[in-house]
Design goal:
The protein has helices at 36-46, 141-145, 176-192, 199-214, 253-267, 285-296, 311-316, 342-347, 363-376, 396-408, 422-432, 447-454, 460-471, 473-484, 491-498, 500-513, 520-532, 542-555; strands at residues 2-11, 14-20, 25-29, 69-76, 113-119, 125-130, 137-138, 149-152, 242-243, 246-247, 273-276, 303-307, 322-328, 331-336, 356-360, 388-392, 412-417, 437-440. The protein is of the alpha/beta class and 557 residues long. It folds into 3 domains: 1-161 and 267-347, P-loop containing nucleotide triphosphate hydrolases (Rossmann fold, 3-Layer(aba) Sandwich), CATH 3.40.50.300; 176-238, no CATH class; 354-557, no CATH class.
């Protein structure tokens, strides 16, 4: 069995969703509150293998119980017995986008069944098989159980004892015999062991006897202490798995999560649908990679849908298997990632987990914005609070390409690039037409040149001194001499001969050519220096105006 389409109305955070699934291996990603987990819950509820679900008003969208919860799951490769006319053969359909289209399958059409779960304000639940041509037919929990849906999530600990929903039950036969065996054992213990011989218990019984005799009450035989047998406390659900003398539940979270996943996957193999919420939970990176590879390499017809907030998941999964989930005012949208975006995704996976993305030309600009964010943030609400990530575009032209691809996937994107590359500037003008915010320096200069041109004069020497720390005084002197024939690292000595403006241009040009700050940490140092004197800049200078544009875009909404 596999799922072809999911339609959801008025369920928790989803007012409306109509998602047609592209394949059988899906990594569902998105920023927080994008309703990824709710989608898994909707699938689980619609195909729930028992007769009743615990419902509350909070399960209705905006707690509005006057609008019924409705979940429709369209499935393929269902059990052959479902195709019999006396079962659901009259309800076969082809996949259609609307409820008014003719859904009667023709000879070459792939056939599906759609199961609808509807829940009203009184929590009454009804599961029916529907199509666009009939009134529908109820489907029992017994038949829903045949659809083999397994959920691996936050309640994975249940899989280490033989409880009602434990996967361990799938590994055994005739478990009812265990109940009888356990009851016999309890009766033997009750018969053979008298706890009243224990000193601690004997004192209690003696006190009871003395107290009751004062009121004229005496035992018919004698008071004693035995194990009480209650049906509600018996049964195989009390059996837990141990490793030697230690229960497996005492293992680390990652080990338990991986064991639970392995057990579920093994028993939900052929023709099943496995739902995994936050696949990375509790797992070290190497374990997460192995789990994803094992799932992806499956050849037994399983469908696997998992949610993730981890860049590792995004890197490990082919782009064609990634689906971006977004929710705006209750409308949830699931966007497929194009096959040709693999390279972009693997170099900037964090971008896909954000709401907004700043693509910088390189590491210098990335470090610069990171540092300034510590000044710009208000009330300890920094750039991450607004769902913004900053990624390295790896050069102007490449940055424009990546910004365009992110925009096409529905992200709000700003690009910050130098102005010394004509090709990159032309590309930036083109992508601005599709709604990408572009910021570049005036004057056909690099970031380093723009900083040296605009920074307060008393900070120029500080910038040079930072470069000396990276390279040595002799190296910096040589580079300056090669450009100006003046062997010094002192700004005032160069300015005395060339003048302030020419000296600013010269030092900025050397910083660019010799890559003084082409690392993220060096870019952060630039940001720290600018941050310390931010309020003393000429407010009309280009760098402050452009940085303010970045700030305003980042912190809005």
């Amino acid at each position: 069995m596999y799922i072809k389409r999911i339609k959801v109305n008025n369920f928790r955070g989803i007012k409306e969703l109509n998602w047609k699934l592209r394949n059988k291996f899906i990594c569902l990603i998105g920023p927080g509150d994008s309703t990824k987990t709710t989608i898994l819950d909707a699938i689980e509820w619609a195909l729930y293998p028992y007769w009743n679900i615990n419902i509350s008003d909070y399960d209705f969208y905006n707690c509005d119980v006057n609008n019924n919860i409705r979940i429709e799951i369209t499935i393929g490769d269902f059990p052959d017995e479902f195709m019999r006319e006396e079962n659901y053969g009259l309800y076969l359909r082809k996949d259609v986008d609307t409820d008014t289209e003719d859904d009667e399958p023709q000879n070459d059409d792939e056939i599906f069944l759609t199961i609808r779960l509807e829940i009203n304000k009184y929590y009454e639940q009804e599961w029916t098989v529907i199509n666009n041509r009939t009134e529908g037919k109820k489907i029992s929990s017994k038949d829903r159980m045949k659809l083999k849906v397994g959920r691996i999530g936050e309640y994975f600990y249940k899989d280490f004892n033989l409880g009602r929903n434990s996967v361990l039950k799938k590994y055994g036969d005739n478990l009812e015999n265990l109940d009888k065996t356990i009851l016999d054992i309890y009766r033997t213990i009750k018969k053979d062991i008298d706890f009243s011989k224990q000193e601690e218990v004997k004192k209690i019984i003696d006190n009871i006897l003395n107290t009751t005799q004062e009121y004229g009450i005496a035992p018919n035989n004698s008071f004693n202490a035995k194990i009480d047998i209650k049906n509600s406390e018996l049964g195989y659900s009390n059996i837990n798995i141990y490793d030697g003398l230690v229960p497996v539940m005492s293992n680390g979270t990652g080990t338990k999560r991986l064991m639970s996943s392995a057990m579920n996957i093994s028993k939900l193999n052929k023709g099943s649908c496995i739902l995994i919420d936050e696949i990375e939970y509790g797992l070290e990176p190497y374990r997460l990679r192995r789990l994803i590879r094992n799932l992806d390499n499956s050849k037994d017809g399983r469908q696997i849908i998992f949610t993730s907030h981890s860049p590792i998941s995004i890197v490990e999964v082919d782009s064609s298997n990634i689906v971006i989930c977004r929710s705006v005012n209750g409308t949830t949208e699931c966007v497929d990632v194009a096959d040709d975006l693999q390279a972009t995704i693997r170099v900037m996976p964090e971008a896909l987990l954000s709401r907004k993305v700043i693509v910088t030309e390189g590491k210098t600009e990335l470090g610069l914005i990171r540092s300034l964010d510590r000044k710009w943030g208000k009330d300890e609400k920094y750039i991450e609070y607004y769902g913004v990530s900053i990624v390295d575009g790896n050069g102007g032209v490449q940055a424009c390409k990546r910004a365009k691809e992110l925009k096409q996937l529905g992200y709000n994107v700003l690009i910050l690039i130098d102005s010394d590359d004509a090709n990159a500037l032309n590309d930036a003008k083109e992508i601005e037409k599709i709604g990408i915010k572009t910021v570049s320096w005036a004057g056909n200069v690099s970031t380093e040149e723009r900083i040296f041109l605009d920074i307060p004069k008393d900070k120029i020497q500080l910038l040079i001194d930072e470069a000396v720390k990276f390279y040595t005084k002799e190296t910096i002197e040589k580079w300056i001499k090669d450009e100006s024939n003046k062997e010094t690292t002192q700004y005032k000595d160069i300015e005395s001969e060339l003048g302030e403006q020419e000296t600013r241009k010269l030092i900025g040009r050397i910083a660019k050519r010799k890559e003084w700050y082409k690392r993220i940490d060096k870019g952060e140092i630039l940001g720290d220096i600018i941050k310390d004197c931010y309020d003393t800049f000429n407010k009309e200078c280009d760098i402050i105006k452009k940085l303010e544009e970045v700030k305003d875009w980042s912190y809005e909404g």
